[in-house]
Write a structure and sequence with these properties.
With 146 residues, the chain is of the alpha+beta class. It contains 4 helices and 6 strands, in the order ββαββαββαα. Strands 1, 2, 3, 4, 5 and 6 form a 6-stranded antiparallel sheet that branches.
Length: 146
């Protein structure tokens, strides 16, 4: 089954997991038996290291911005690599639909571009930065880049 990883450096990587045991493969990939499944979009699941923040894994601002855009509000911080899969109406894991793949890639690219711009022109404050990224992500989700 095809899935995607959003990494703390805002890169996205394609993953292929065996359809027979996706959950175990995701646990192995994330390096944790404690994997939280978060639903921020009705057709997607973010698989998050359950102890990532406590272990000091780096913040994942691209996954946070995507989840915030999908939910329509700023959420709590996410840490470590995040695996994104699709979700059936019954809640089973499946491959991510094409439009959600585009959301994932567009938001990650926007976060990378924004970080690059911030090196030359830092945001006025942390609050401004926290508001800026979800606003850009919401734009990408409303009309993803082609």
């Amino acid at each position: 089954m095809h899935a995607f990883s959003i990494n703390p450096d805002a890169t996205v990587a394609g993953l292929n997991f065996p359809a027979s045991d996706v959950q175990s493969a995701i646990q192995e990939y994330l390096g944790s038996d404690a994997v939280d499944q978060a639903v921020y979009h009705p057709r997607a699941v973010l698989h998050i290291h359950g102890n990532g923040r406590n272990l000091g894994l780096p913040q994942n601002l691209a996954a946070w911005a995507l989840a915030s855009a999908w939910r329509g509000m700023s959420l709590y911080p996410l840490a470590g690599p995040i695996v994104v899969t699709g979700r059936t109406e019954r809640g089973d894991v499946m491959a991510l639909d094409g439009d959600l793949v585009q959301h994932t890639k567009a938001v990650a690219q926007t976060v990378r571009d924004t970080f690059s711009e911030w090196r030359a022109r830092p945001p006025a404050s942390n609050e401004a930065a926290v508001n800026e990224l979800p606003a850009y992500a919401a734009r990408d989700v409303a009309s993803p880049r082609q």
